[in-house]
Amino acid sequence: MNAPTPNRPSADGEEQPQGPPAPTLQPTPTPTPIPFPRRRPLRYLTYTLVALAALALALTGADEMMREYRLGVIAGVFAGFAQGTALVLALRRPVPAWTLSLTAMVLTALAARTALAPTAAPSLPHGPYPGPNWPWNTQEIVVQAAVLLLLALHVPARRALAALAATALTTFVVQGVVGAQQFTSTGVVAVAICAVAVLVGTALRGRSEARTQLVEQVTITEEERHHRTLLEERSRIARELHDVVAHHMSVISIQAQVAPHLVENPSQELRENLDGIRQNALQALAELRRVLGVLREENPDYPDDPYALPAPGTGAAPDAPQPTLDRLDALIENTRAAGLDVHTDVTGEVRPLAPGVELSAYRIIQEALSNALRHAPGSTVAVEVTHVTEGLQLTITNSRPRQTPQPSPGAGHGLLGMRERASMLGGHLTAASTLHGGFAVVAFLPRDGVALPDEPVGPGTSPVPELIFPTGDENP
Questions:
Q1: How many separate domains does the chain show?
Q2: 310 lies in some domain
């Protein structure tokens, strides 16, 4: 049970609560599938290649319109470059590009039919001349299929299928209703090729969306797991600190009960006040025990923690004292027995610390040693406990592992718990790899378990000592 962090006034005079905010889950936005590379040089290269292909199709299409369909220069150039423009436009605006390509096809087909209507199909030795392709020529089929492919990549499948249906309907209306005997029909071939393009584009878009949703779900799951682990660690810390508070409330109750017997002829008013103190302490103790019962039911088992609260019904002592720095030597011996070479160094004048500070200091050292056992087997560990005027500084450094670490079944949130313990007491913790392949954890905990002010207490001084992070050159 930690003391609330003092509020700090803001610029407008209102008080702003301090302390780490609770994490919030931010949904990952679903990006629009992009059919081209995300890197700028590759994307520009793709655009350039498409533009060159569009130019080639425009030139060949214009030549075919003038030569095969007997359109004039202006009409032929318009028809060819309309299809080329539609192909380039489809890179960014596939729906307008599809409309432009389909409209250009209809106008070109009607103009070609009008231009060739008076001309009879010539006869050849092997039969009549079949005539040019109609209503779609080769260039128009290629462009329309490419445009529909890009459209299917950018829009939902329902809209892509609607565009394909409109293309098929327009094709068969122009070919069947308007009709032309002197041409080779290409309607069925064009619709079939466009249908394949739409199916391919829809499949690629569906695959991209499925992959994006999978990444999004993995991200959300990881955020939820992180959030749940954070809450579990806070609940565990709260259980331990509630035990500390419950112990002090029990002491207050006993002292209030004994106090009248230590005074000769205590007045009735003194007896009533002491009895009130005792009753309030007992009531607070009952509430704390109720809270502890709830917390124990939520997280009954901590098999990796030798000092965790036991599960109900296990027969273990429910009120076992929480560990403090007095048990540090026993912890070090247990770690050495597990195979780590641990050296300790306690410096500075030992001063009384708040129970929560001693408990958190012990837990931080315990977790750091556990991490060294799991991730750096065979390494040498140095544990430095420095008592300063403002509080306690802890430095736990391990060297490069001499053995290959085995896969650990843990969730890897030990550092999160250590940071939570330091933060809730107004301290701070830093953990990082050293230059020579080891790992170091450096923490500072205020002596009273209350955040120290940011303002200097004197000229050129600061109440928070500067943390000296080890580089790995030290030989523990």
A1: 3
A2: no
Is residue 374 within 8 Å of residue 414, measured between CB atoms? no
pLDDT of amino acid 443: 94
Domain that includes residue 278, residue range = 230-298
- Which pLDDT band holds residue 451 (cuts at 50, 70, 90)? low
Q: Which long-range contacts (CB under 8 A, 24 or more apart) does 4-11 make?
A: 5/426, 5/451, 6/451
The 3-state DSSP class for residue 447 equals coil
Angle between helix 138-154 and 187-258 (nearest 10): 10
Task: State how far the Cα of 446 lies from the Cα of 354, in Å rounded to an integer.
Answer: 9
Asked whether residue 312 carries a pLDDT value surpassing 70, the answer given is no
Residue environment code for 73-94, b if the CB has 16+ CB neighbours within 10 A, otherwise e: eebbbbbbbbbbbbbbbbbebb
Largest Cα separation within the chain, whole Å, is: 141
Helix then strand then coil, % of the chain, to nearest 5: 55, 10, 35
Domain assignment present for 432 = yes
Please check whether residue 249 lies inside any domain of the structure. yes
Under 8 Å between Cβ of 82 and 143? no
**pLDDT value at position 223?**
86
37 membership: H or E segment, kind and range: none
Distance CA 451, CA 29 (A): 38
On whether both 247 and 363 belong to a single domain, the answer is no
Alpha helices per DSSP H over 259-347: 268-298, 328-337
How is residue 155 annotated by DSSP? S
258: CB partners within 8 A, 6+ apart: none
**What gap in Å lies between CA 336 and CA 108, rounded to an integer?**
88
The CATH number of the domain holding residue 333 is: 3.30.565.10
- The dihedral over CA atoms of 375, 379, 382, 383, expressed in degrees to the nearest 10, equals 40
Q: Which residues of 202-236 are buried (b: 16+ CB within 10 A; e: fewer)?
A: beebeebbeebeeeeeeeeeebeeeeeebebbbeb
- Asked whether residue 122 carries a pLDDT value surpassing 70, the answer given is no
Domain shared by 381 and 253, yes or no: no
Tokens of 223: 């955020």
Amino acid at the residue 305: D
Compute φ and ψ for 426, nearest 5 degrees. Answer: 85, 10
Q: How many CB atoms lie within 10 A of CB 464?
A: 18
User: CB–CB of 324/358 below 8 Å?
Assistant: yes
Q: Tell me the per-residue pLDDT of 48-73, one tens digit each, with 9 for 90 and over.
A: 776 777 777 666 766 666 666 667 66
Mean pLDDT to the nearest integer, 435-439: 89
**Residues 165 and 244 occupy one common structural domain:** no
Measured CA distances, 403 to 12, 102, 340 (Å): 58, 69, 11
Residue recorded with tokens 């378990």: 449
> Quick one: tokens of 138?
């080769």
DSSP state of 174: I
Residue 145 lies in a domain: yes
